[in-house]
Design brief:
Layout (H helix, E strand, L loop, with lengths): L6 H7 L4 E6 L4 H8 L5 E5 L7 H11 L5 E5 L5 H10 L3 E4 L5 H11 L24 H4 L5 E6 L2 H5 L1 H5 L6 E4 L1 H7 L9 H16 L4 E4 L3 H10 L3 E6 H15 L2
Parallel strand pairs: 1-2, 1-8, 2-3, 3-4, 4-5, 5-6, 6-7, 7-8
Helix pairs in contact: 2-3
Length: 253
């Protein structure tokens, strides 16, 4: 049994634009629907959604039948949670609230086996094909894609240092938290917030690292991509269901 190739990682390294969908309903059915919709990637959210480890496990099964990359956003930059998700077979992680070079370096260490890191070793995990994947322990690190989220003033101040860390495969701008940190809570579209986002994206691109972001409308998504984002979430399952159900209800009122 061979190890899966992390298609998202290789596409980002090649500079290919990758559009995705945020999955936050904590439902394997929603995950399966989004996985089969034609996106390049989907993201299972553990930070702002009620997903626990066994629920992520079920959603990985639901997405596995489709040619889509499946990311997981962790609740925190935590070595134990990282270890458990990697053992489940997650190859791409998005870590929130990274603010410094040290935090980025720690994140890399948490995803790598010794001697390059501190990831715990287990040989019969789902990631290793339950022991069937040849040389998994030697080859796993090469297919890990580690994305970090910058969403504070301190993170912006340290953006270049974070992006320069070896093992960081991309930097994601958290627009809602960043806007709030800059004094514009709930006002992502505020001109000053947008100016900061544009500047951050362009700085990431200048560092020759892929830049990512979440957008909830087409105009924002296309604007962010014009600034240089190459992994862009263009929708959210909860919002798609909410807005489309509202439209349907209004047809009959």
């Amino acid at each position: 049994m061979d190890m899966p190739v992390n298609q998202l990682k290789h596409n980002l390294q090649a500079g290919k634009v990758q559009t995705g969908c945020w999955v936050s309903l904590a439902s394997h059915a929603s995950t399966e629907i989004c996985a089969g919709a034609g996106f390049d990637w989907i993201l299972i959210d553990m930070e702002h959604a009620p997903n626990e480890l066994h629920m992520v496990h079920h959603q990985l099964h639901a997405a596995a039948a489709y040619p889509v990359s499946t990311l997981v956003r962790l609740p925190w930059n935590d070595t134990v949670v990282i270890k458990r998700l990697l053992d489940l077979g997650v190859q791409t992680l998005l870590l929130p609230y990274v603010q410094s070079k040290e935090e980025a370096e720690n994140a890399v260490r948490y995803t790598r086996y010794p001697q390059q890191g501190v990831r715990g070793v287990a040989g019969a995990t789902r990631a290793a094909g339950y022991g069937r994947t040849k040389d998994y322990l030697k080859r796993a690190d090469a297919e890990i894609c580690l994305l970090v989220q910058v969403e504070t003033r301190e993170g912006l101040d340290n953006l270049e240092a974070i992006a320069a860390v070896d093992g960081i495969d991309g930097v994601f701008i958290g627009p809602a938290d960043l806007s709030a940190a800059l004094g514009y809570t709930g006002q992502i579209q505020h001109p000053e917030a947008q100016k900061a986002i544009e500047d951050a994206v362009k700085r990431i691109v200048k560092c020759r690292k892929p830049a990512g972001i979440l957008a909830t409308d087409e105009a924002s998504a296309r604007r962010y991509m014009s600034w240089g984002t190459t992994f862009t979430a263009v929708g959210l399952d909860a919002m798609i269901l909410a807005r489309e159900s509202e439209k349907l209800a209004k047809l009959y009122k």
